[in-house]
Every structure is written in structure tokens, then in C-alpha cells.
Write a structure and sequence with these properties.
7-stranded mixed sheet; alpha/beta; single chain; globular
Length: 270
């Protein structure tokens, strides 16, 4: 929709002669300046999630990393669509896409997040059938998308790791809103993280950005028990979200290059 609006706007500007007027006023380097103007206008119309996914997969491509996309909490398939489109846009056509969701909405909230009432049981419910229907409508090749249906505390297990063919993770989206759901996700993804993995938290600034609630509390505890993992703040997105670049550290606290980390962990669960 945003792209369509942008093209309609440019079309109207062309009809009104505004583009030529802008060109004439931009001086000798008017064509490169006009291109910059168009790019800046595109950013105005771009969706916040789409922009983050473009940045994330462009970063993965620039760093010469490869890996799969893991999404925890899928709802309507909007972010899965973004991941698919931008992975292919930058040429990461070997990326496989894994969607983890109960397809029952949010579970019952535990005591940790009840202190600041922000979410309710059953919110963000979408069926697995509707999820795939939305992907197909957005021209996603669903043969590359694998769904793992169920509550995270039941499905995110060693058995699931053995069953799936996940390589290392290029980009991970955690969009589960609450503390109790985030804890098993973080434990599950540890074997797949490498230096350079982009880790997205869609609800980082929920619960008044309290470190004692939601995703932030889960991450704080997770980092305390996984001293080999360091999260470097990257870009905020869509009002409540925050992205990080993963660094994997050796026993001396130095960052391991991605290839070195992979060589040292060839026997990890797949």
C-alpha cells in the first residue's frame, strides 16, 4: 500500500510538472539530488516493520552472513511477509523461514506482567490457515515457510531442534509480548546464534520499558546465565521495538567471528 501511494504521488507530480520544476531548481547535480529526494520521500511512506526488515537483511548481506529466519509470534503474517520479501530482495534466496505460534492468541499472563496490565489472554489470535492465506495473498512462496504450532513452553524443545533443519539464525523476531513466553524462546535459540545475528524484539518498550517485566526481564535473566552472548543495540523500530546485533564471546571475552563460531559448534542440535 505504501509503495502504491508513493508511485501515485510521483505520477501526480509528473502530470503537474512539479518534478521538472524540482529538477530545474536542484542545480547541476539535479539528477542525483532528485534521486535522493525520491528515496527520502519513500522513507516517509515506508512501514516501520518493513524498514527494519530491509535494514536487517541488508546488514546480513553486507556482513556476508547466511542463515535462516526464525519468528516467534506470527499473527497475520505481516512480518513474515516482510522477512521473505527483503531476504529475496538482497539475494538471500537460500533463507528458510520458520514460524512459531500457538495460533490461539496470547496465553494466560503470569504474575510478572499482571502488575502493568497491557495485554490480555487470547489477544492476537489468528489461525494457521489464515496465516498461510495471508502469505499467499502477498506472493510468499509458502513452500519455504515451516510452521511449528503450539504453546512455546511445549514446542520449543530439544525434540523440535532435532526435527527441524535450522541452520544458524540470520534474523530472529521475538514478538510474543510477555515474559513467560519469551523465556523458552531465548533458551531455544541459543544454539543457532552466531556473531552478526540480528535479534528483533517487537515489544521491547512495552510495560513502560521496565526491566522487571516482559521481554526485557526475560533477556536480562537470559544474558546473566549465558555469559558468552552479548547484545549490541542496533535500531529501534515501530514505536515499541528494538533490534540488537549478537556477539558470541570466547572464554577471554573476545568476539568470535561467525565462521570460527560455526566451526567450533558443528555438533550442535540441528
Amino acid at each position: 500500500m505504501a509503495t502504491l501511494m508513493f508511485h501515485v504521488l510521483i505520477e501526480r507530480m509528473l502530470k503537474m510538472g512539479l518534478v521538472k520544476m524540482i529538477q530545474d531548481s536542484l542545480g547541476e547535480d539535479r539528477y542525483s539530488n532528485l534521486r535522493m529526494l525520491k528515496e527520502n520521500m519513500a522513507r516517509v511512506f515506508r512501514d516501520g516493520h518493513a524498514d527494519m526488515y530491509y535494514q536487517a537483511f541488508d546488514y546480513i548481506d553486507e556482513m556476508k552472513l547466511e542463515g535462516d529466519y526464525l519468528e516467534f509470534g506470527c499473527f497475520s503474517g505481516k512480518t513474515m511477509t516482510c522477512a521473505y520479501k527483503y531476504a529475496n530482495k538482497v539475494g538471500l534466496d537460500k533463507t528458510r523461514f520458520y514460524a512459531f505460534d500457538s495460533f490461539e492468541g496470547l496465553p494466560e499472563l503470569g504474575n510478572t506482567d499482571l502488575e502493568i496490565p497491557e495485554f490480555q489472554k487470547g489477544e492476537f489470535k489468528s489461525t494457521e490457515q489464515q496465516f498461510f492465506k495471508d502469505l499467499k495473498q502477498n506472493r510468499v512462496d509458502t513452500s519455504k515457510v515451516t510452521t511449528i504450532k503450539g504453546w512455546f513452553h511445549e514446542t520449543l524443545s530439544k525434540e523440535t531442534q532435532d526435527k527441524l533443519s535450522i541452520r544458524n539464525a540470520a534474523v530472529v523476531m521475538v514478538d510474543c509480548d510477555i515474559y513467560e513466553s519469551t523465556v523458552p524462546i531465548l533458551d531455544f535459540i541459543v544454539p543457532y546464534l552466531v556473531t552478526g545475528t540480528v535479534l528483533l524484539f517487537d515489544d521491547w518498550f512495552c510495560f513502560c520499558a521496565s526491566d522487571d517485566h516482559g521481554e526485557r526481564k526475560a533477556v536480562k535473566e537470559w544474558l546473566q546465565k549465558n555469559s558468552q552472548i552479548k547484545l549490541v543495540p542496533y535500531l529501534p523500530f515501530e514505536g515499541y521495538g528494538q533490534s540488537f546485533i549478537v556477539n558470541i564471546l570466547d572464554s577471554d571475552g573476545r568476539t568470535l567471528p561467525p565462521a570460527e563460531y560455526l566451526r567450533e559448534n558443528l555438533d550442535r542440535p540441528r
